# Entry
Amino acid sequence: MNPAEREEMARLLPSPGDPVLPSDRLTQLEAHLMREITLEAPSRSARPAEDPSPSRPFRRFAAIAVPVATAAVVVAAVLTVGDGGAGRPSTDPEAVRLLDRIATVAAARKAPRVRDDQYVYTLTQGTQRIMDEGLDTFRRSDWHAVDGTRDGLARITVLSGPSGERTEDMTLEADPNRTTYRELEELPTDTDRLYDHVWSATQGQGPTHEEAALEMIGSMLQDATLLPEVDAALYRAAARIPGVTVVRDAEDAAGRAGIGLSFGDGDDRDVWVFGEKDLRYLGSDEVALLDVDVVDKAGQTPAG
# Structure
């Protein structure tokens, strides 16, 4: 994204609150994870062999929205004194069981056939505070080239709020620092290997090591819904990290009800939301994932 486009985005959607990890530090961690993975894991894509880039960080999941209040009751164990000392999180058996169920459902989904000349399409919804004027509710569509070699498109529609209803498009220039679909599918699908990579990359980070690792996993969940084996491995890796608790009556940022998995405290609390019956990933309490698919050209939607 060039400076003019960054300025336009900043004008339309002011900067969100601080994430769990500072953005520069998360970029470093994600780049480190990608470097380890690309050095160890063989490519499963149809692209010609090429040198892995150690400088390509994973895209943050909640990059353009501020937290939305969630009416939720946490049903699980809370922080206890564990092997790591006072205040370290404990393992919640209910959360582990739910993550295992989610992983099983995710692994059973059929992966789409994806060509390098196509685009990954995502539709999200969230809110953004406009100074002291109130909240804008917006929807954002993104089109990113599967192989990362072509420009993409972002379409932002303000549905309601002080900014007024409107839609604006902007070009997303091909960015070598953005993880592509092809790179995401190169993640190890073995749970132990994926867990080891995430845990190693987040050593010494976050309010706790556990929160930093879960934050990194959460940043991958959106696009991973198109990759059943990777998706399942991410949930199974998350099940090995203490500190996740089950949330009843959770809501995503679009107000859809579901069952949630929460980690962190206070302003750093994140909630992943899933359909209560089908366990489909709905996004989070910050950004709802309304659709994700693969299309032939930028600007095209799965319906046409």
Summary: The two ends are 27 Å apart (CA to CA). Confidence is low (pLDDT under 50) at residues 5-23, 36-86. Strands lie at 73-75, 119-130, 134-145, 152-160, 166-172, 245-251, 257-263, 270-274, 281-284, 288-295. The first helix runs from residue 3 to 12.
